[in-house]
Amino acid sequence: LWVVSIDLDRFKFTNSRVGHKAGDRLLQHVAERLQAAVRPIDTLARLGGDEFALMLLPEENAAKPSVEQLQRVLASLNRPLVLDEKETFIASSAGVAIYPDHGGDPTMLLERADIAMFRAKELGGDNYKFYTHAMREQLGERVQMESALRQALERHEFVLYYQPQVDIGSGRIVGMEALIRWQHPEMGMVAPGRFIPVAEETGMILQMGAWVLRSACQQLRTWQCEGRRHLRVAVNVSARQMAERDFVGSVADVLTEAGLSPDCLELELTESLVMNDVEHAIAVMHQLKKLGVKLAIDDFGTGYSSLAHLKRFTVDVLKIDQAFVRDLTVDPDDAAIVTTIIALAANLNLEVISEGVETLDQLSFLREHGCYQMQGYYFSRPVPATVFGAVLDE
Ligand code: C2E
Ligand code: CA
Ligand code: CA
Ligand code: CA
Question: To which H or E segment does residue 151 belong?
């Protein structure tokens, strides 16, 4: 017997957007979907809010429940839900505790299924994990991380690194992506992959994102004043920021404050961020466009936006994800995906940039296929502002 804890990803945030009534109806749909996906002998319980518990029994002639069984249940949530004639995408995280390996009573099993579910969430969500004892320790670390993160802004422990974006046509640095780094007094340098998900979930990403935006714009202004007028800066935007009531207004304020022309700022939005609430995202993209900032779709090709959607996004740049660039020269599938994205960008009159360029072979392939803007270790790792300034002088 398996006890499965299921929790919707970012539901609080969906709820704040669609309103509580619509949120409740959405949960009702979710419950119905799950109910329809399990067999009568599997017990499904709504634990309140957006949390569900499931007891999964083995299928006939099987000794244990199977991963396929679990996947079938979870997949029932993967189709978009239609709410007030709008498509809403639901993602969920699930954790599994196995009887009797992980516990002998329901309380302990559910507790451990929850721990596994949190782990799945931490790893980005939209996934499931089986409980392991190591997860319990990690959970402790996570609580520590959360409180440390709360103090980090006040203590000025964040720094921005900059990674050049190069136009290999002219051979010039045309811009840079600002990437956050956390220099913790004891933990040392903490990678964004470890703290951004925590910041997202706790909402701290809002303060953090505002700091990143302001710092990056001020830094760019400094470089521009030193004579590098052509440079632009790319800043990553999180879903929560996009959903904020006056995100566009705050971007406008930051630009004014820094004395920066809007077209020097590029905001990187991921596909999944946009697909979270397509209509809202499109509306915000239109406003940002009107303001004059540039928009890029980050990690392009990894999400599930359709071409029909892409046509309605007012973006300027497609950024090819490094996952496709990595094996570009050895994996024909990746090569095909990359050349397709480059062609797509050309047909839609969009700029295209590749991230994660590490080798001359990758560079040559990209150039041959018409992608001239690149970013990656081949040119430079992300570096502190002082080092970046020196690179610019070379
Ligand atoms: P991303 O936006 O896809 O950023 C690119 C990541 O790839 C960066 O990792 C960068 O250091 C790394 N990278 C660059 N060139 C290469 C290369 O040639 N090879 C390889 N293997 N990697 C390369 P980083 O800095 O660890 O950031 C990870 C992710 O954290 C970012 O992925 C982004 O999603 C998020 N992030 C970073 N800074 C911010 C921020 O200020 N705000 C938000 N919301 N997210 C951020
Ligand atoms: Ca929840
Ligand atoms: Ca990025
Ligand atoms: Ca990426």
Answer: helix 133-152
